Amino acid sequence: MASCKQWTVFLSLLCLVSATMAAPLKKPVAVPFGRNYMPTWAFDHIKYFNGGKEIQLHLDKYTGTGFQSKGNYLFGHFHMQIKMVPGDSAGTVTAYYLSSQNNEHDEIDFEFLGNRTGQPYILQTNVFTGGKGDREQRIFLWFDPTAAYHSYAVLWNLYQIVFLVDDIPIRVFKNSKDLGVKFPFNQPMKLYSSLWNADDWATRGGLEKTDWSKAPFIASYRGFHIDGCEASVEAKFCATQGKRWWDQKEFQDLDAQQWRRLRWVRRKFTIYNYCTDRVRYPSMPPECKRDRDI
Ligand SMILES: *[C@@H]1O[C@H](CO)[C@@H](O)[C@H](O)[C@H]1NC(C)=O
Asked: Where is the signal peptide (predicted)?
């Protein structure tokens, strides 16, 4: 039985390799901040450069700040270039995420946890479906995210949610409706980003406190690309559902090279994966069956 199952996996992998050609994600086009986004809070802590092509979020002991997309989206490719807070960033968190607006909300999160000078950032990702999260994964990055801009993106369609760093998949959350797991598909989401103080938990579990003598802490942004199906908050489906590039076959699964890269990230950079946390989850969450095949 077990070997039969493995054989099937092997065969379908073979098919996958032969059937899927590398499908590059559509190249994002940089636009000014104001095209797709607006400030959410502490407006005076957002600074604009080059006519809004580049912005900075400032965090000091009085407040952090944040912004959000003007539109709501159901599926698409969402992309941002960010340069994280340099130097001593311990205690700070820079977040970039999608979230729906209701009670049983869906959410797709990137959270960058700062650190002492020279110590590595952690990238934490999470997925909420129908109000339920607790699906944290944590990795170190293979570069210093404070030294230059890097791109952070989400590909979201009916089949999968892919987290990408510089176009390398670092996580995939497959639609596991067949396993009884909710998948975000009928609640439009806005994009959000913010920089705030979280020294009660962020760095080494709250041991490292934010050093306010180093303020302001500054995260820089550019790109501001959004390629999604815009929908009203109440919409249950997108008007062009199934017809956009991200809905097409080559984006319904990772291709062979993307799987290889994801495995590389997994092997080399994983710090924590809720799927393998038997203390927290004595029995494995169902969607992790898909995670394990990686
Ligand atoms: C910060 O650096 C320490 C020491 O290298 C490390 O244990 C920790 O995982 C790093 N990141 C965070 C966010 O705490």
From this structure: 1-22
Q: Determine whether the shortest distance from the Cβ of 203 to ligand 1 is under 6 A.
A: yes
CA distance 191 to 57: 16
Query: Mind giving me the DSSP string for 75-98?
Result: EEEEEEEEEPPPSS-TTEEEEEEE
For the entire predicted model, the pTM comes to 0.92
Of 80, 121, 98, 79, give the one whose Cα is nearest residue 217. 121
Strands, E assignment, the chain: 37-41, 46-49, 54-59, 65-69, 73-83, 92-99, 107-113, 122-128, 137-139, 150-156, 160-165, 168-174, 190-197, 217-222, 226-230, 270-273
Name the residue among 228, 101, 208, 114 with its Cα closest to residue 161.
228
- Token output for 164: 């990408």
Let me know if 111 is a catalytic residue.
Answer: yes
pLDDT in tens, 117-172: 999 999 999 999 999 999 999 999 999 999 999 999 999 999 999 999 999 999 99
Whether domain 31-291 has CATH 2.60.120.200: yes
Which ligand 1 atom is nearest residue 202's CA? Answer: 13
The Å distance, Cα 286 to ligand 1 centre, comes to 30
Q: What is the pLDDT of residues 78-91, one digit of tens each?
A: 999 999 999 999 99
> Rounded to whole angstroms, how far apart are CA atoms 79 and 63?
26
* Alpha-carbon span 76 to 246, nearest angstrom: 6
